[in-house]
Amino acid sequence: MNELSRLQHSHVVTAACQFTEQVPHARALGIQVVSVDRDQVRMRLTPQSWMFAQEDTKEICTSLLYSLADSAGGLAVIAGAMELMPIATLDLRMDYLRPANGDRALLAVATCRHLTDQVAFIDCDIFCEADSELLATAKATFMRNTHGQQFHSDGLKKNSV
């Protein structure tokens, strides 16, 4: 990795670490960034009782898996491009393999498979962190360089032109 790439990657990692501070939805759910690599992001969601589909079960509401996959996928776009930019989810399809049990943390592993100038293609797997059991798979596309509010690694928000 050359010096410019190293610097860009450093800014992406810094932004990823600040993700839950800058994105209120992720902060409210307690989503945590575990790791950021060149084109892959790992994020954790530790379930809480209010996240259960029904009070008498410990099955996690499926919408939370969508939020986790969307968050991890969005960061994977930024990691893959090694550039901070505004993005928007175009499409997110989830295939469920089994219910998510609420007594164990979930781990999303999102990988940027392909980047064009305008669109990023993401694969995301969601596991039960304790035993690496695959719970769901997702495919997503994201629009890159959308107009709107931008986030920077210094934590400041700036409006796009």
UniProtKB/TrEMBL annotation:
KW Hydrolase (keyword) present: yes
Q: In Gene Ontology terms, what is one molecular function of this protein?
A: acyl-CoA hydrolase activity
Q: Give UniProt keywords alphabetically.
A: Hydrolase
Signal peptide, first to last residue: none
Q: Taking every annotated instance into account, which residue ranges of this chain make up the domain Thioesterase? A: 65-132
Output the CDD domains linked to this UniProt entry.
PaaI_thioesterase
Per its UniProt record, what NCBIfam families does this chain match? unchar_dom_1
Q: Protein name, please? A: Thioesterase domain-containing protein
Source organism per UniProt: Alishewanella agri BL06
